[in-house]
Design a protein that fits this description.
It is a single chain. The chain has 722 residues and is mainly α. Helices cover 66% and strands 3% of the residues. The radius of gyration is 33 Å and the shape is elongated.
Length: 722
């Protein structure tokens, strides 16, 4: 652990290089002047705004976890074999080794994750004992990972139970009969439990992205079951004397084809997430592909199996509140069809404008509610300790240096020549650690420090300021640099040199902390600016400049999101068009059917753009899921339309009949899905909240589009033959 208690002090009181060689004073050393130490912590180029805030009221304690060698060895072995597999075909033994080490690594990393959670819990217990004496915040990646895992566990429990409760209430309101509440709940529960069992057997880890898979699975299963219930009630109302087995047979016969295609299209929509290139999103896609398949199988097996033990009962009237709503939509488009079409055109234009303003630039801190410890800790570190997000700038020597070294050969730096001359030490052989290049390093440091997005910057320029103080504030030459580097105590060298310069002095690291809470932060723009400035203002070659760190990794993920979104939507629409072609056997009908779903997806993406909601690891999936689920209503409606139209070859009469029949099932399922997604608003993870609310909005828009735009297009273009 590193804290103000054990870091070296050189101005409390002031010491020189010779004194530092004998002993390294710290805050707990007897000779340390506390008053001077307070001043040094506030003014030191190394500690100020990093270990201690500038006002001296906030300090940090850094807990360093030990490097786990077993973990590293397993990881390196697995990655070596994976890399070899990319370059050439593995032998049979190597393939077995890869499978074995992959399993070992997964189990070991899971154990480490559990241990890390236990460590964080233990640290929290220690901190809790001292909360009466100070305001304490816990931060850092291990803590964030631990808390996110807790969020996942919380979300799975809340979403599962919450959605079940919602479904019970909605089914009671919709159908008002115990069998139509109990039966769907049993089917949903069996599907969910079976999927959980599969995940356990496959050792599939649930992440924050896939934490809502249970709620999605319950909603999908219920949607299929509701369509069966509505069709069953409709047939029973038309044929009250029909026996149960014939009612069930006709229900399954009429719904098998559209239900099968709705399940397939929903699976395709989730399968499109596999092209995202982001591991948690890919896993989420696979989970839902398996889940939807289970939902279809259990719905069509359990629904007739359980109803066979019951009598049909009294037929229910098909004229109710829902029928009045769907009939209202039918009258609206009949009387004001052109106005409705113009309205959709305007909405699409506005949606495209909103989509054009979509960005992936978002703050990680905004993923969490202000009440969470993650948010509070990040704000504290940003405000008082020089920034949250690490960004490292790595500088290499230019090409001419390596060419020069190769020309001279190793003999130029032999031990015989340098044994009696310390000036031929590291400052005589390294590219950066000499008085000439260190002037450039200092200028680069100052430039990086003055950028508005950056907080604390540490580098060899920081080290040079401290070395100058140890040299009685006198400038250092190459001989002094070589002597100091060689004779400094190892503990001091680990603090002043190791983090910022390689052992040979040919590679430098500028450790930058970026203000994550800065509302104007544009990561990609910052990265591009740093690269351009170093190249143009300091004459560095592009090959010399490397940027890495958490900010770069996070930015790369964000930048891939937009491409993934476009690719995902493209894959979904192509796949669904193929499904429509197979199901409807008509290009014209297939194009008409895809338009309402395109409208719903465009609307929700446009709404995000207008509201300033950025794409992130959760909202990237909204468009694909919207299309995949909303297309279910389209398939059921068009399929029913094609069945009803031959009765009288009257398009408007067919619309009225479809709205009065399949329209009710569409209404029930859409309302259920919308309210089911609203339960996600109880999450502590903001992207999950956005995902739930925006997907709910998309479902409402899709329902309205399928009850207005879809029938209007069918009437206008008349794709069915007499």
């Amino acid at each position: 652990m590193v804290s103000i208690l054990d870091v070296p002090l050189i101005n409390s009181p002031k010491i020189n290089f010779s004194q530092l060689q004998k002993s390294t004073p710290t805050l707990t050393s007897p000779e340390t002047d506390i008053t001077l130490a307070k001043k040094e912590f506030r003014e030191s180029p190394l500690y100020s705004n990093h270990l201690v805030s500038q006002d001296g009221k906030t300090t940090a304690l850094q807990v360093i976890f030990k490097r786990d060698e077993t973990y590293q060895n397993l990881l390196e072995k697995r990655e070596d074999l994976r890399e070899k597999r990319l370059l050439k075909t593995l032998t049979v033994q190597e393939s077995r080794d890869l499978d074995e080490v992959s399993v070992q690594f997964k189990h070991y990393s899971d154990a480490l994750l559990n241990q890390a959670q236990a460590d964080i819990a233990a640290i929290r217990k220690v901190l809790f004992k001292h909360r009466n004496n100070a305001e304490i915040h816990l931060g850092g990646i291990p803590m964030i990972v631990s808390d996110i895992i807790d969020y996942v566990e919380h979300d799975i429990q809340v979403f599962g139970l919450g959605v079940l409760l919602f479904l019970v209430i909605l089914l009671t309101v919709f159908f008002r009969k115990p069998r139509w509440v109990v039966l769907p709940m049993i089917i949903c529960s069996v599907a969910a439990l079976s999927m959980i069992g599969i995940l356990g057997l496959m050792e599939w880890r649930v992440t924050v992205v896939s934490s809502n898979f249970i709620s999605l699975l319950l909603i999908t299963t219920l949607s299929l079951t509701v369509h069966l219930i509505v069709r069953y009630q409709e047939l029973h109302s038309e044929n009250p004397e029909m026996q149960q087995k014939f009612l069930l047979w006709e229900t399954l016969r009429s719904k098998a084809q559209p239900a099968f295609f709705t399940a397939i299209t929903t699976m395709v929509a989730f399968a499109s997430l596999l092209v995202s290139g982001i591991r948690p999103v890919i896993d989420f896609g696979w989970m839902m592909v398996f889940g939807v398949a289970l939902a279809f199988v259990f719905s069509f097996l359990m629904f007739p199996s359980m109803l066979m033990f019951l009598t049909p009962g009294q037929a229910r009237s098909q004229h109710d509140f829902t029928s009045a709503i769907t009939a209202l939509f039918a009258r609206l488009i009949h009387r004001n069809g052109n106005i409705v079409l113009i309205t959709y055109v305007l909405l699409m234009i506005l949606s495209l404008v909103g989509i054009a303003s979509l960005t992936v630039e978002n703050r990680f801190i905004d993923y969490f509610k202000e009440s969470t410890e993650i948010y509070q800790g990040m704000i504290m570190i940003d405000r008082e300790l020089g920034g949250t997000t690490p960004l490292d700038v790595i500088l290499e020597p230019d090409k001419s240096y390596y060419e020069f070294i190769n020309e001279l050969g190793d003999e130029s730096f032999s031990d015989d020549e340098s044994a009696d001359d310390e000036s031929a030490g590291i400052s005589g052989t390294s590219y950066w650690f000499n008085v000439f290049q260190l002037e450039t390093v200092d200028q680069i440091h100052k430039h990086l420090e003055q950028l508005p997005e950056t907080g604390k910057v540490l580098s060899m320029a920081t080290t040079m300021k401290l070395l100058t103080q140890l040299n009685n504030d006198e400038p250092l030459d190459n001989i002094s640099l070589a002597v100091m580097y060689k004779r400094l105590p190892e503990s001091v060298k680990q603090t002043l040199f190791d983090p910022y310069m390689s052992n040979d002095g040919n590679q430098l690291r500028f450790a930058i902390r970026v203000y994550e809470s800065d509302v104007t932060l544009q990561r990609q723009a910052l990265i591009d600016k740093i690269r351009a400035d170093l190249s143009e203002k300091f004459d560095l070659e592009k090959e010399q400049i490397n940027l890495t760190g958490m900010l770069v990794l996070y930015n790369n993920m964000l930048q891939s999101l937009f491409q993934s979104q476009m690719l995902t939507i493209g894959v979904v629409f192509m796949a669904i068009m193929l499904m429509f072609m197979v199901l409807f056997r008509s290009v014209k009908i297939s194009v008409i059917a895809i338009i309402p779903n395109l409208a719903a997806a465009a609307f929700v993406l446009g709404l995000m753009g207008w509201l300033g909601i950025h794409l992130d690891i959760m909202t990237i999936t909204i468009a694909a899921i919207t299309i995949g689920i909303a297309v279910d209503d389209t398939i059921h409606y068009v399929h029913r339309f094609m069945e009803e139209y031959p009765k009288d070859h009257d398009y408007w009469a067919t619309v009225n009949r479809c709205h009065a029949s399949i329209g009710k099932a569409m209404y029930y399922t859409s309302v259920t899905i919308t309210l089911g997604f609203s339960i996600l608003a109880l999450s502590n993870f903001i992207p999950t909240i956005y995902f739930g609310l925006l997907t709910g909005v998309a479902m409402v828009v899709a329902l309205i589009a399928n009850l207005t735009l879809l029938p209007l297009l069918l009437v206008k273009f008349k794709p069915l033959k007499h």
